[in-house]
Amino acid sequence: MLPGRGRNGRATWPARILGTRTAWTPVGDGEFFCPGCGGDRNYQRLTGHRRFTLLGVPVLPRGETGPVVECAACRRHFGTDVLDHPTTTRFSAMLRDAVHTVALAVLAAGGCCARTSLETAAATVRAAGFDDCTEEQLDALVEALAADTGRVLGEPCGAGLAIELHEALDPLAPHLAPAGRESILLQGARIALADGPYTPAEREVLATVGAALTICGDDVTRLLAAARTPS
Predict the structure, then answer these.
(1) Collapsing DSSP states into helix, strand and coil, what is residue 207?
(2) Which residues belong to any copy of the Co-chaperone DjlA N-terminal domain (predicted)?
(3) Alpha-carbon span 151 to 174, nearest angstrom
(4) Structure-derived torsion over alpha carbons of residues 96, 98, 104, 107, reported in degrees to the nearest 10
(5) DSSP 8-class letter at 11
(6) Are 15 and 53 in contact (CB under 8 A)?
(7) Which 8-state DSSP code applies to residue 76?
(8) DSSP-derived secondary structure for 81-145
(9) Mean pLDDT across the stretch 86-94?
């Protein structure tokens, strides 16, 4: 085999002499969920400048590249869209707040806030992460919500309440598996059923919850019916 040629007879020396190198510059940092590590990690946001190299020495600029996100732990690079995924800590807070908002909306739609409904709602909210939530706190919040919005308890879901549900659920829905979205709806359904069959206002609130969670209407109907069947 001739010097400077590979087994197929092609020249290999230019590949060893010429190349490209990227010089990265940090332009920001923070915390993100690293898909490589599978957990919350610190990151640096980098932009790069590529150069042709001759014998390993940068000689000519070749343009910019990036930006990319570099994990401080595994050093892998990812596209900046990875930052759209919430950290584990942020995701837990979003889920907790979503369950709390749904519980309040269902209680407000129910009207009288029966003790059984308050007990079920408080247990649901505590399980979501508000460890010190009590029936009395929820009852007071529902009364305050009605006073603040001018709504009468037990009325259909108004525009203000629908907006609150969408604000809590819209950012969360893309990061939940179908089973997770259904679980939030079912939790609201069980609160509504704790004191008896669904009222029209409760059904309307739960339909709004389903829409915000991107659950189709037929599946919402199926899930609300399933919640009425003892497991």
Answers:
(1) helix
(2) 127-222
(3) 31
(4) -110
(5) B
(6) no
(7) -
(8) GGGGSPPHHHHHHHHHHHHHHHHHHHHHHHSS--HHHHHHHHHHHHHHT-TT--HHHHHHHHHHH
(9) 95
Q: Which pTM does this prediction carry?
A: 0.77
What's the confidence (pLDDT) of residue 3? 46
In angstroms, the CA 25 to CA 36 distance is 22
Burial of residue 2, with CB atoms counted within 10 A of its CB: 0-12 exposed, 13-18 middle, 19 or more buried:
exposed
The pair of three-digit structure tokens given for residue 43, joined into one six-digit string = 């990151």
Contact between residue 37 and residue 11 where contact means Cβ atoms under 8 Å apart? no
pLDDT digits (tens, 9 = 90+) for 114-144: 899 999 999 999 999 999 999 999 999 888 8
SS3 track for 33-46:
EECCCCEEEEEEEE
Query: 67 with 50: CB under 8 angstroms?
Result: no
What is the Cα–Cα distance from 156 to 111, expressed in whole angstroms? 10
Considering only CA atoms, give the Rg of the chain. Answer: 27
Answer yes or no: are the C-beta atoms of 185 and 209 closer than 8 Å. Answer: yes
